[in-house]
Amino acid sequence: MPTLYDPTREELSLILEGEPKYRIDQLWSGLYEHFKRPADITTLPAALRAKLDAQLPESLIEIRRETSVDGDTVKFLWHLLEGNHPI
Length: 87
Hints:
By secondary structure, the chain is α+β, with helices and mostly antiparallel strands. It is built from three helices and two strands, in the order αααββ. The protein folds into two domains: 1-56; 58-87, no CATH class.
């Protein structure tokens, strides 16, 4: 089963088949610009968020996030679900 960040944009569009075309932009922006889980992307309908959460489990757990004073840089420390070491 693919995890949250495995599918390409094209593969995500297949998962969103039957949804309006703009949903891919909303999902992509939420994932890669705002670093949100599908359940937290409020521009998506609740039913779609639940479906995406079920189909695309997280492979990383955020341990720490630091944002620069000017807001231009965000750094993350992640924990892999399959491993024992932070990355």
